[in-house]
Amino acid sequence: MTRQSPQAGEKSPGKPAAQRCIAPGCGASFGLGERIYVCSRCGGPLEIDCRLENIPAAKSLPEVWRDRGASPHPRDRSGVWRYRELLPFDDSAPIVTLFEGNTPVYDAPRCAAYCALAELRLKHLGMNPTASFKDTGMTVAVTQAVRVGAQTAMCASTGNTAASLAAYSARANLQCAILLPRGQISSAKLAQSLDYGAIVLELEGNFDDCMRLIRELGDDPSIYVANSINPYRIEGQKTVAFELMEQCGWQVPDHVVVPGGNMGNSSALGKGFSELLRLGLIERQPQISVIQAEGAAPLAHLFAKLDPAQIAEGKELPETLEPVAAPQTLATAIKIGSPVSWKKALRAVLESRGQIISVSEQQIADAKAMVGRDGVGCEPASATTIAGIRKLAATGHIRRTDSVVAFLTGHLLKDADYVSHYHRGTLSLAAETESEPAQELTGAFRNASERVAATKVAILDALQRRK
Ligand code: F0G
How many whole angstroms separate alpha carbon 350 and alpha carbon 372? Predict the structure, then answer.
């Protein structure tokens, strides 16, 4: 199933940008307008080769990008399209934007102390238009969907991809349908997709079942798949690496740490940093570490079994990943047992000498409350990063004085039910079978509300008790 687009994405004379298979020994190349999501020769993962060698005066890009920050033009205001020299579109292509990106970096002294670090910064991607990091990829994927004349954009989702695709499709006046695992996503995320007018299909089964169906549906010429298997999503998400470097004054942090679900985000960051390195805009990559929830950690399991000598040489990496058949976690965004982009993510982590580890439900819950104490807040999946950094600092992989950036991928209000349960002391993870007990989680940083009499004395008394 391939269809040619009317346009190519050349930037300047030289070989045009292309979609390329990254499977070892394949390397097949496809036009930018071919609507494929995996290599049609070998089934391997596709990546976009932006032909960095065609980019003139790469060293001046940081200045060009910075100057666009003051421009009112939509293509400059977007924190993704601002970096368009490294995107596979020509500058006249109409774009679908909600002014995504431009997300803040915060100092987080309480989180730093919690992790036993001198300092820690939080890059809050939950401050995007639909309140998750998905928007940076979706602006590019939906722009491409329009470019290839798609009729219906679709995705499988644990909630955030769905909300983002629904919003961008609405902007583009494109039909959007989303597949969700019934009863397994937060009500806030579901509400967003409904409000943006998507066709919401709730399926019996888990995210991995939805993803399997999406891959089948992608063969239908009327369907455009917007999951991160689509290399255009990765192109948008990689720009977060560029924005972060600008915000760090082009001083490379020692570590960047991200949650891992379907593994698109870690793959994208790896691509972004490696492109900056190839262009000579940074002198080294930060270590990229990925944190999974213990009950949904297939890549952390695989990573733990890799032989360090094999890792150092970066070759003969495993061909298969053993999926987690029934993933379990209250961080529903990353409740994924069979991540589609695991090979790209593993490559990014190994190239940068990072780690892939897992953290427990209790560790996620407490780390999430700690992000709140810094006045920042995030959804549960995002807090895996703080829990993971704490663990990596305890094992010595991260040193006390290292510079560390944790990526927060979703906003606090994406899952308000989880937050209320944590602070009320009623957070629990149901067991796989009814005969087993549920896992009760204690809120180490509980902050339950109190009932007080409606009098001045009672209120002052309540404040006094909390001093
Ligand atoms: N954090 C949040 C808040 C997410 O929504 C997701 C993924 C991740 C982290 C993991 O990122 O998949 O790139 O490794 N959410 C997807 C969705 C699966 O459908 O919204 P990843």
Answer: 32
Ligand 1 closest atom vs CA 261: 14
Q: What is the pTM of this model?
A: 0.95
Alpha-carbon gap, residue 368 to 111, rounded angstroms: 10
CA of 462 to the centre of ligand 1 (A): 40
What are 259's two structure tokens?
Answer: 């949650």
| Segment 421-458, tens digit of pLDDT | 999 999 999 987 888 899 999 999 999 999 999 999 99
Using a 6 Å cutoff on CB, does residue 329 contact ligand 1?
A: no
Cα(76)–Cα(260) distance, integer angstroms: 30
415 lines ligand 1 (CB under 6 A): no
Q: What is the distance between the alpha carbons of residues 442 and 447, in angstroms, rounded to a whole number? A: 12
Q: How far is the CA of 333 from the centre of ligand 1 (A)?
A: 5
CA atoms of 436 and 257, how far apart (whole Å): 34
CA 272/CA 383 separation, integer angstroms: 23
Q: Is 298 in the pocket of ligand 1 (CB under 6 A)?
A: no
d(Cα 32, Cα 330) in Å, to the nearest integer? 38
Neighbour-count burial for 170-182, b at 16+ CB within 10 Å, e otherwise: bbbebbbbbbbbe
Q: Are 256 and 249 in contact (CB under 8 A)?
A: no
Report, in this order, helix, strand and coil percent for the chain, each rounded to 5: 40, 15, 45
Radius of gyration of the chain (CA): 22
pLDDT digits 0-9 by tens, 129-162 = 999 999 999 999 999 999 999 999 999 999 999 9
Structure tokens at 177: 């349908």
Cβ–Cβ < 8 Å for 338, 257: no
- The token pair at 385 is 């990063």
Rounded to 10°, the helix 298-305/342-352 angle is: 50
CA 209, chain centre distance (Å): 20
Backbone angles phi and psi of 394, in degrees to 5 = -65, -30
| Separation of alpha carbons 427 and 255, rounded Å | 31
- The best mutation among 122, 160, 291, 382 to test binding of ligand 1, ranked by most ligand atoms within 8 Å of the C-beta, falls on 160
**Which residue out of 127, 161, 238, 321 has the highest number of ligand 1 atoms within 8 Å of its CB and is therefore the one to mutate?**
161
- Tell me if 344 sits within 8 A of 263, measured CB to CB: yes
Instruction: Report how far residue 124's alpha carbon sits from residue 110's, in angstroms, rounded to the nearest whole number.
Output: 16
**Per-residue model confidence as pLDDT tens digits over 56-75:** 899 999 999 999 989 999 99
**Among 219, 174, 276, 229, residue whose Cα is nearest residue 19:** 229
Q: What is the DSSP letter of 179?
A: E
Taking the C-alpha atoms of residue 49 and residue 19, their distance in angstroms, rounded to an integer, is 6
